[in-house]
Hints:
The complex is a heterodimer of chains A (168) and B (307).
Chain A: H1 3-16, E1 21-27, H2 31-42, E2 50-57, E3 63-70, H3 76-85, E4 90-95, E5 98-104, E6 110-112, E7 133-138, E8 144-148, E9 154-156, H4 157-163
Antiparallel strand pairs in A: 1-3, 1-4, 2-3, 4-5, 6-7, 7-8, 8-9
Chain B: H1 18-33, E1 44-49, H2 54-66, E2 70-74, H3 81-84, H4 89-99, E3 102-107, H5 112-119, E4 124-129, H6 135-149, E5 156-160, H7 167-176, E6 182-186, H8 195-203, E7 207-211, H9 214-217, E8 223-226, H10 236-245, E9 261-263, H11 284-303
Parallel strand pairs in B: 1-2, 1-3, 3-4, 5-6, 5-8, 6-7, 8-9
Amino acid sequence: MTDQSKAISQDKRLVEAIANGTVIDHIAPGQAMNILRLFTFLGRGKKNRMTVGFNLKSGDMQSKDIIKIENVTFSPSETEQLAILAPNATINQISDYKVVDKYKLRLPPEIVGAFSCPNSNCITHQEKDATPRFKIFKKDNGQVMMRCHYCERVFEREIVLKTNGLEP
Amino acid sequence: MTNPLFQKDIISISEFSREHIELVLQTARSLKEHPRDDLLKGKLIGVTFFEGSTRTRLSFETAINRLGGRVIGFADASNTSLGKKGETLADSIRIITSYTDALVMRHHMEGAARLAADLSPVPVINAGDGANQHPSQTLLDLFTIYETQHRLDEIKIAFVGDLKYGRTVHSLAEALSMYNARIYLVSPESLAMPRYILDHLEAHNIKYSVHQTIEEVVPEVDILYMTRVQKERFDETEYQHLRSKFILSSNMLAEAKPNMKVLHPLPRIDEITLDVDASPHAYYFKQAANGVYARQALLSLVLNKEI
């Protein structure tokens, strides 16, 4: 076994070692930290045991981050929020040490309540009834754009993440 | 047949198709030529200006009164529960729209009109939400262009002045991109048209060019759309310098085509000198008067299944 395949095997064990819960795999290097911040935002990181791996060796990526969170299944809306942060990550649903569901994150058409609007004069900053809401679309060059439902401003995904304290 | 704008919210020009725009313009023309005083009979309209705007408010109130409707509302929010007691905008909207058949609303924050529309059981007409949208202004501009040029397709139009913050020019450029316009942009570099508007024009294959002086574009265009360079955005010296470059005077109109009209959303400060007013090219006061017909058309369509 080469050093690299040993390392991959070791990382794989790390993934499989969870009894029940969710493994977010193939996170772009550095993005795990943002996802942890999002967990705090979602109130998911409080009691559940988490293991985080940064810059692990990956077969199909140069390196990757990985997060295991025990006894948690993400709702569809939480999965959508994750997709904005880590568009190419994979979700592994683990039950009794086995992967029972596995899917790639996909950008949702719309995202509600996850990120505040970068426009400081947007009504969402004043009115509780105006929950921040963005339409998501991709430009021809692949750039992910987010359009505020209320103020109609269109932002690059990175601008929305930065304004929300998340480094893209 | 029910008209497609019946009971619809009018929040953003980006939601208008060509068919919608043409329906409003035809209705405006018909109401200008054949006034009606019955289309809002028995209707009560809330005209709520959380931010003051004399011309827009009086124009809406004139439109409602001329159509036989009645108005409740306020001209600024300082003396309302929202301004004085800290009531939320959402609660104010819930209450006012439970009294009225439609709501006309202006607010200084972007997205306020959309929030109102989401909460209201009756149609909401946006009379300006911060720097975002002011659809009745765009419709009155389009109506005036149609009235003076007898078409909307392939209009050659120059936008002059503050193209960065001027929502009027953003919305009009966006609407004209449905009509294959040729657009000329004349502004100080610091007040240039924002990238996202240029992206929109490019996505619709609209030809545009950037110019330094008004004289360059005057002989080319059908419409010269002037806007105010706002003093508060610059220090005094810079303002005086910029201002002098973007003032239209009558001697600059010598080369204009006979059909060319000068428009301006008003108020004008000094970017159009008074001697232009007498020129056959000046059309900005008639444009402001057209605001009443465009708003009559919108209100009539929103509140009548058929006209």
